[in-house]
From TrEMBL, chains A, B:
This is UDP-glucuronosyltransferase. Keywords: Glycosyltransferase, Membrane, Transferase, Transmembrane, Transmembrane helix. CDD domains: GT1_Gtf-like (cd03784). GO terms for molecular function: glucuronosyltransferase activity. It catalyses: glucuronate acceptor + UDP-alpha-D-glucuronate = acceptor beta-D-glucuronoside + UDP + H(+). Its EC number is 2.4.1.17. It is found in: Membrane.
Length: 478, 478
């Protein structure tokens, strides 16, 4: 049996499905205030409802506030103001997480069920803290599924993965791995500020200690998406875990796609959060899309803009993955969510990025650096062949692995079950203090030693010198 | 086609065999002064003889000297003397490598053949330097097969893999990953001395630059043998590449093994280098072996000692892997060569170590730390159950991988062929200077900035103060 808990549900689900295929029993803890998990839909998992100490209305209000802040407020803010607001939201998120956690560890009923369940492993996303504590109480291995944390703070401090700021750009810093001097200064400050802030929340040491016990960290990225960096034996890179081959399109969509002829199609979506945009913005986008020779499939649930061209069709819902895998697809206009980007990588489709919020700018900067995306310029991506070539290259990098990300994820979860954790993959760095890790105690000792030797040498010399001179003086005075 | 060159032949061969199975053509460069490669034996590889500028007699004499030094001289030497002698041998080894290299790059005929061969990749062991240059001249991807280099110097400096001396014991330092303060001091010094010495040989920068271009580093160890440590995306751990299931034993050996009853057997070998030991040592070993209840198979080509017990049988040659995989095997008495150790790990057999020279003490310290070997004490390993349990645990760790080491090695070699190298796995650290890597330029800048601000602030304050006081004084004097 296997215990699931967490938020980034889309990436967890294929893993759990595959584990059920392999004969595992899976229990999913669903907080009552969850916005994305639906415990009533028929499923092969056992859902266990957990009473959050906060209501779903509060959660919804927060989510709305967060979106409004990210999309509309942020651009009018200064850096410091933005940062403070962001950290406030971070604190609210922590409150929600602790609210969900209360529903688990403070509920005798739930804890009793979990203890009796004899679970083999706990799978969790550390974006919602708390799973560490549950795994620790139950005494079972913990496997993380991680996208990233701000500036890789938790991966570095709790997971002990080395990340020299000279060539590992902090997550969300909007930098690539090729940094000039000023970018390295900025990256260094970015790490430092983040570390300073996060070391101030509660008691990071003990939380970090618990996080550091995680047996396997499944990192939802790979070297097709991310920049190569040092890793540890228990960090497994499984980006694109949810990707799958394209299925045939529904008849009406296939007909529209085929009508595009040699020009092909463009897929346009701003993700599931953006249901409405202002009339002004809608008209602007629509008239821009009207100018390209491709047919455009626009996923949008708001009202059709007036300037909509004959080449553009609005859909309430599109089979995004099947469209991305269609041979007629020329470009993917995206807000830059990591799931959509991975589907484009999987199928080798170049991208146009219109980043809105959260990790979207970060993601699109990666794609731009790898030469498969431009930001806000659709014609370039279609007419400049290098983007398609690079997209095909990334796609081949994505597929050219000994194991698919899904198989790799499942392998390491089952590994943690078979071996009751993964202690032999854990570096000893976890047992060191920060000054021991950086050998500062060794430095201090060697420096003291050298200084002592120099001191003794000088003293001895001066002593000898005085003796000699003393004798000489005596001799002279005789 | 694929080009092989190098010395650690036993581990290269299974890789090349498997590549030939997969339809690749393999050419092996054999130096005329090679002691271990036999280009005349029938094989599925194409052997290309390379005229070393040094004769095989010189090579043999050096090897003998090296063995004599390692086994007989070393124990009577002080640390400094030993170190100097070792470095002298290192320099001679380099001379041999350059002698072999001459036979390749300075021979028009060989270079012509290599250029016309249209090879896809060069596979090499960096213990014999030179392959980097050949790959660079031919403009083809380079895949390394590496056991380790002293203190991981080349992996760290040329491969850019991070190795904090606080928890990564330098190779050959005889330390584990659990170090107390004094051991960390020693490890730190060990790294420093090694780095100082190796940075002095020739022009390390340009050699390192060439080595840094290696696309894939196949490291012949894994977390069953080694301590977990940071790695890089292009470092693949393939320890145990030569291991395979046991085949049935020859009839006479099987009969002797079965005669051991429940007590089981002990396998005793000091490797293929030790053909003779002194009569005194032989008698000592034989009488010790006579005292255990197990039957002993002793691989030895010298004269049978007088004190040989009835339970011990001397063999000129033993099917070591098949014996290690036999259910009656209780312990493996070994000199601690890494190939034999990996076969014992593969089959889950506890070990008794009698380290002789080279990396043998290093290897056995790893096995001791993992609880599967003792050094010089056969009864403990057989009677204390923890050794067998730990051996079985290591064996399960060894087998519990998504891919076998051989398949993994072959995968990444073919990967380098398919993708014309592996540039997307290469960290940007290769492009940085050492002070950039450690952010020292950033530190210096930020420090200067802070000092300037403090300086201006103090100046401003003192200026204001003087103004104020000046006015006050004036006011007073009015």
């Amino acid at each position: 049996p296997l215990l699931g808990m967490g938020s980034h549900w889309i990436n967890m689900k294929p893993l759990l499905e595959k584990l059920v295929d392999g004969g595992h029993r899976v229990t999913v803890l669903v907080p009552s205030a969850s916005l994305f998990m639906n415990s009533s839909e028929p499923s092969r998992f056992h859902y266990e409802r957990v009473e959050s100490s906060l209501s779903i209305e509060v959660m919804e209000k927060f989510m709305e506030e967060f979106l409004h802040f990210s999309i509309y407020e942020m651009e009018h803010m200064g850096y410091v103001q933005m940062y403070l607001r962001f950290m406030e939201l971070f604190r609210i998120n922590l409150k929600f997480a602790l609210g969900n956690l209360d529903g688990v560890v403070k509920s005798e009923e739930v804890m009793m069920k979990l203890k009796r369940g004899n679970f083999d492993v706990l799978l969790a996303d550390p974006i919602m803290p708390g799973s560490e504590l549950v795994a620790d109480i139950l005494g079972i291995p913990l496997v993380y599924s991680v996208r990233f944390t701000m500036a890789h703070h938790f991966e570095r401090y709790c997971g002990q993965v080395p990340a020299p700021p000279s060539f590992v750009p902090g997550a969300m810093s909007k930098l690539t791995d090729r940094m000039d001097f000023w970018e390295r200064v900025w990256n260094f400050i970015f790490y430092a500020v983040q570390d300073y802030f996060l070391s101030g929340t509660g008691k990071p040491t003990s939380a970090c200690e618990l996080m550091g016990k995680a047996d396997i960290w499944l990192i939802r990225t790979y070297w097709d998406f991310d920049f190569p960096r040092p890793l540890l034996p228990n960090f497994k890179y499984v980006g694109g875990i949810h990707c799958k081959p394209a299925k045939p399109l529904p008849k009406d969509i296939e007909e529209f796609v085929q009508s595009s002829g040699d020009a092909g199609i463009v897929i346009f979506t701003l993700g599931s959060f953006i249901r409405n945009i202002t009339t002004e913005k809608g008209n602007m986008i629509a008239s821009a899309l009207a100018q390209i020779p491709q047919k455009v499939l626009w996923k949008y649930s708001g009202q059709a803009p007036e300037t909509l061209g004959p080449n553009t069709k609005i859909f309430n819902w599109i089979p995004q993955n099947d469209l991305l895998g269609h041979p007629k697809t020329r470009a993917f206009v995206t807000h830059g969510g990591s799931n959509g980007i991975y589907e484009a990588i999987y199928h080798g489709v170049p991208m146009v990025g219109i980043p809105m919020f959260a990790d979207q700018p970060h993601n699109l900067i990666h794609m731009k650096a790898k030469g498969v995306a431009v930001i806000d310029a659709i014609n370039t991506v279609i007419n400049d062949k290098s983007y398609k070539e690079n997209a095909m290259r990334l796609s081949s990098i994505h597929h050219d692995k000994p194991l698919s990300p899904l198989d790799e994820g499942v392998f390491w979860i089952e590994f943690a079950i078979r071996n009751n954790g993964a202690k032999h993959l854990r570096v000893q760095a976890h047992e060191l203090t920060w000054y021991q890790y950086h050998c500062l105690d060794v430095f201090a000792f060697l420096l003291a030693l050298i200084l002592t030797i120099v001191f003794i040498f000088i003293k001895a010399c001066s002593f000898c010198l005085r003796k000699c001179c003393g004798r000489k003086t005596k001799t002279k005075s005789e």
